[in-house]
Amino acid sequence: MRPIDALRRRLRERRRKLLRLVTNTEDEILALDTNVPAELEEEAQEARLATVLVWLDDRITAEIEAIDHALTRIERGDYGTCEDCNDPIPVERLHILPAATTCVHCAAAREATARMRAAS
Ligand SMILES: [Zn+2]
């Protein structure tokens, strides 16, 4: 099997797993809504839990989008090339992070920019 086929399979498997997680999370949020009236303290706890679940849901959705992006790039044939500097992304990095779209240097640069934006 070519390395890219193995990576594609891993991306697809991860995507399936994440979709299952999203479904489970949505079920849990629904379950919270249909609960019998609770004491105030329990309600506060449920609100906190719901916030965590929504946050988790956002994270999972973002990762699924990143995976879809990587799969599109595989189909297009530009998978494994850094989006910022066009250098090839080392295979070792892709094995750890199959959905990576940038090399380590550009990823660090992006992070630094995001941190600066968050701080200002
Ligand atoms: Zn780069």
Task: Write structural notes for this entry.
- With 120 residues, this protein is an all-alpha fold.
- The protein has two domains: 1-79; 80-120, no CATH class.
- Helix content is 75%, strand content 0%.
- The chain contains four helices and no strands.
- The longest helix is centred in the middle third of the chain and has 37 residues, at 40-76.
- Zinc ion (ZN) is lined by residues 82, 84-85, 87, 102-103, 105-106.
Low-pLDDT windows of residues: none
Question: How many discrete structural domains?
Answer: 2
Structural class: mainly alpha
Oligomer: single chain
The pLDDT mean sits at 89
Largest sheet: none
Care to count the β-strands? 0
SS strand fraction: under 5%
Helices and strands, with pairings:
Layout: H1 3-33, H2 40-76, H3 91-96, H4 104-119
Bound molecules: zinc ion.
State the main characteristics.
binds zinc ion; 4 helices; 2 domains; mainly alpha; 120 residues
Summarize, please.
With 120 residues, the chain is an all-alpha fold.
